[in-house]
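Today's session is about reading a structure prediction critically. Students often jump straight to the picture, but the first step is always the sequence itself: look for stretches that repeat, for charged clusters, for runs of hydrophobic residues. Only then move on to the predicted structure, which in these notes is written as discrete structure tokens rather than atom positions. Here is the chain we will use throughout the hour.
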Amino acid sequence: MTTAQKTLRSVVLGVGCYLPSRCVSNADMEKMVDTSDDWIVQRTGITQRYIAAEGETTSMLGLNAAKAALENAGVAASDIDLIIVATSTPDYTFPAVATQIQAGLGLQTGVAFDLQAVCSGFVFAVATADKFLISGSHKRALVIGAETFSRLLDWEDRTTCVLFGDGAGAMVLEAQEGEGTAQDRGVLTSHLRSDGRHRAKLYVDGGPSTTQTTGHLRMIGKEVYRHAVGMVTDVMLDAFKATGTSAQTLDWFVPHQANRRIIDSSAEKLGIAPEKVVTTVDRHGNTSAASIPLALCVAVADGRIQKGQLVMIEAMGGGFTWGSALIRW
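Below is the predicted structure for this chain, in token form.
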């Protein structure tokens, strides 16, 4: 008689989040740009978003989210030996936001670095942290999605400035021994993709090596929507196939919060029941790499996500990048 081989899993110990104090409603947006609450809600599902204050940086948001996650996990900062920050809006070209958060936590050991995959960043960061932890090289990771996307917006472009917001979310992961089955707690599988041919559909028209400026976000919304549903459902199907699970055995679907129509269409295509979908785009807007950990934080805090449940996270971002991770909570 043989037994399942023991394996290391990256187990979620806790989550935390942080939002700026300034909340901007659709009514507020109507005063700033030629738009309407009906137009925004009908096309995106967004009713409000949070905007960072002047001088409030991505690292500040991320540090607050990190502290909240550590408290929720019951873990001291000194127990962390890996910090990965997913962001497209760093405080500086360098150093990395992660190193600033590391310093803010009072840490002088371990490794800290940023990862850039735009809206897919948190999924990519979770997958990357998982590789470190299951290799045995590191024990506990702090994975953070933090953004001040308001700094990239053209506030005269009504098609994009109403969509995005600022915020940060964080997750603490720990390497623990599992049985090597889909019943293990932790990250069960991750599937990442990229296709650089789509750059012109969603990008920022500036950077150090091109314009030497920050630039503004540019998007062809119809093209992004057209690709989004097919791309994200493919990587989710890959996750189900890899683990022998299905949309029916899934407890919670926590997608990138970009657009309510994309979220609903993806869930419908895969046969995921609406009541299993965690949606926060209405209150946060699109916070890019911060959107998934913010949504996870909300669903954990209100008691929906429970230990032992099967949770799917997925996202698509500029580049294009897209990916999924299946986690047993």
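Discussion point for the tutorial: The domain at 186-328 is CATH 3.40.47.10 (Peroxisomal Thiolase; Chain A, domain 1).
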